[in-house]
Specification:
With about 90 residues, the protein is mostly helical. It has 4 helices and no strands.
């Protein structure tokens, strides 16, 4: 993690979540299909966690504020998306 993310995590302000490589591209694809935007793979990790958090909150009947950073586009990562198998 970056120093700022590490500091926020250590102070208890945020939780860090690791996403396996086979789970982040589907999250990015969901955004593309819904919004027409290809996020960068790094942003797709954040999207996957936001989706997982939303689904967990829905299943538990909870209201949550879910914040994530969409930091870049994936125009230079199109081959990774093309290589990812369809769901």
């Amino acid at each position: 993690m970056s120093p700022s993310v590490s500091a926020l995590c250590n102070a208890g302000y945020i939780d860090a979540v690791a996403v396996p490589p086979d789970r982040h591209l589907p999250g990015g694809g969901d955004v593309h299909q819904g919004r027409g935007h290809h996020p960068a793979p790094e942003s797709a990790h954040a999207i996957r966690v936001a989706i997982d958090e939303a689904l967990d909150a829905k299943a538990k009947g909870e209201k949550r504020v879910i914040l994530f950073n969409l930091s870049g586009h994936g125009h230079f990562d199109m081959m990774a998306y093309q290589a990812y198998p369809e769901r």
